[in-house]
């Protein structure tokens, strides 16, 4: 859940011994329109060598609509109008986050008639899988010390 008008980070998600989190917030674009934005981040990557990579597949963001009781897939959201939209990405030492700048217009999100708010919060669901890991010795995998 995201508090309206605040930047918020989710509870840490563990995949392949790596910590991940989703950052959600409201942001204005160059044209002045405000959007709900969501970005997935790798945590604690400063401990890695410079050649590490995580290949992420099946990236999906959903926003819950309390009015109709359904999760709206990212295919229904603003960002997917971009023809470069892809569900695959490579996280690396130079690219530690990935996400969407135009999930939904902020004015639509905060309008109670649209059903996205409940008790001043927005419900967002994220799913992804780590398909391939590079840059770590095979016998070690991702360092265990990164898990808190």
SSE topology:
Layout (H helix, E strand, L loop, with lengths): L1 E2 L4 E2 L3 E3 L2 E11 L5 E9 L10 E13 L4 E4 L15 E4 L4 E9 H5 L6 E2 L2 E2 L1 E11 L14
Structure write-up:
It is a single chain. The longest helix is centred in the C-terminal third of the chain and has 5 residues. This protein starts with a strand and ends in a 14-residue tail after the last strand. The chain is mainly beta and 148 residues long. Strand 3 and strand 4 form a beta hairpin. The strands form 3 sheets. Strands 2, 3, 4, 5 and 9 form a 5-stranded antiparallel β-sheet that branches. Helices cover 3% and strands 49% of the residues.
Question: Can you give me a brief rundown of this structure?
Answer:
The protein has one helix at 106-110; strands at 2-3, 8-9, 13-15, 18-28, 34-42, 53-65, 70-73, 89-92, 97-105, 117-118, 121-122, 124-134. The protein is mainly beta.
What are the main properties of this structure?
148 residues, mainly beta, five-stranded antiparallel beta sheet, four-stranded antiparallel beta sheet, 1 helix, 12 strands, disordered C terminus
Low-confidence stretches: 79-84, 143-148
Gross morphology: elongated
User: Could you tell me the radius of gyration in angstroms?
Assistant: 17 Å
Distance between the termini: 23 Å
Look at the helices and sheets and give the structural class. mainly beta
Question: Helices and strands, in N-to-C order?
Answer: EEEEEEEEEHEEE
β content, as a range?
A: over 45%
Bin the helical content: under 10%
């Amino acid at each position: 859940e995201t508090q309206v008008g605040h930047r918020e980070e989710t509870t840490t998600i563990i995949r392949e011994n790596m910590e991940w989190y989703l950052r959600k917030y409201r942001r204005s674009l160059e044209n002045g329109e405000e959007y709900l934005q969501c970005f997935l981040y790798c945590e604690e990557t400063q401990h890695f060598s410079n050649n590490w990579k995580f290949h992420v597949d099946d990236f999906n963001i959903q926003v819950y609509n309390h009015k109709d009781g359904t999760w709206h897939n990212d295919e229904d959201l603003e960002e997917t109008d971009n023809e470069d939209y892809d569900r695959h990405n490579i996280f690396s030492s130079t690219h530690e986050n990935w996400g969407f700048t135009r999930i939904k217009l902020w004015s639509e999100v905060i309008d109670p008639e649209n059903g996205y708010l409940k008790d001043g919060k927005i419900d967002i669901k994220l799913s992804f899988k780590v398909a391939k890991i590079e840059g770590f010795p095979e016998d070690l995998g991702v360092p265990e010390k990164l898990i808190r």
